[in-house]
Predict the structure.
Amino acid sequence: MIEFHLDGRSGVAPYLQLIHQVRQALRLGLLREGDQLPKVKDVAAGLAINPNTVLKAYRELEYEGLAAARPGIGTFVTGTLGGGSLAAHGPLRRDLQRWLAKARRAGLDEESIEALFVSTFRSVGEEDIA
Amino acid sequence: MTAVIEAGVLGKRYRRQWALSDCTLSVPAGHVVGLVGPNGAGKTTLLGLATGMLAPTTGTIEVLGGRPAAGPVQLARVGYLAQDAPVYAGLSVAAHLRLGAHLNPGWDAKLAQARVERLDLDLRQNTGTLSGGQRAQLALTLAIAKRPELLILDEPVASLDPLARREFLQDLMEATAEHGLSVVLSSHLVGDLERVCDYLIVLVGSRVRLAGPVEELLARHHLLSGPRRDPGSLPDGMQVISASHTDVQSTLLVRTSGPVLDPAWTVSEVTLEDLVLAYMSQAAGRGRRNHLEVQR
């Protein structure tokens, strides 16, 4: 079971934050098909938010085919994101950890690492499109 | 579905002073309604009319399709938590629960018991010695265990510290989800309501200035900033709620039905707080004063 959190300063609507967190958990393999999402009542109580906000997020996930409600029981994950690539996460993560260690040894701080990553990510993306 | 509150040109006058005037509202069921406005705006008066503790001077009000406090059935359908969560200071927690059981035909004793246990309240304790947060939670327990369809709360968290405030709202949202309650709660601080409300009523100077589902209200209002210009030159259908100007720039909060197409404006979304403050300052005449400064 995952646990939701809300960033009050992000300016992103709470229901979108909930959807994003479910999608993120699916991509990282924290949630799998058949897993139950937190009950609406528990999310409303935990975060002190309107239950309609949670319902709206869950309806949107249903619409995307990622979840389905079973009346009286709860909402369950019915889809996956990232396809069969989850198995590759482990080795990729280890590569990334090695690369991060190297970047730190070279004297890059967190912000520089993030900037370098994002700009490289973008330029590679553009090459792919071109 | 029946409206939880349906008011038609509702008004209440105390001697010569109108505490609420020209109030026409139709609030659908299934919402958590935030009633926001400065102190003295008429929030408590509107809630008093909805509970039937006050009688209207003009107009009509129906709650859940019935006349407020018309009889035992109507009384059982509406729960009310008055400002500062009053409890009987001479009575114990257990006596409050017995009182609740005797006075309310639909009393849910199991729910009341479970909540008191979870809150760690001592049944023998005199309620006069409870903390503010515990008192509010006991009052909420009585209001929920009555199992109403509509729960009305007047400034429920105003006097609570931040932790007690959060705990109170958590329990209120849990009960809302569990029992499918409709809720109306008032506050003079919009920050308290931002996450819990999905319907907003802004009341200033005894009048309703804005009412509607939060999502719709946010979608219809935009914050525009761009080169200075006269708000009068805006397209039809765009209504300026608040405006401020420097010698080169104008910042406007506008209400519009369609998208903002003029490329001269940088358009950003508004928050609930922006919205409430804009309508409050408009009602207070500050929007106009700003405008006059520009003309000078």
Q: What stands out?
A: The helical segments of chain A are 14-27, 40-47, 51-63, 86-105, 110-129. Residues 86-105 of chain A form the longest helix (20 residues). Chain A has a mean pLDDT of 90. Residues 37 and 77 of chain A are 7 Å apart (CA to CA).
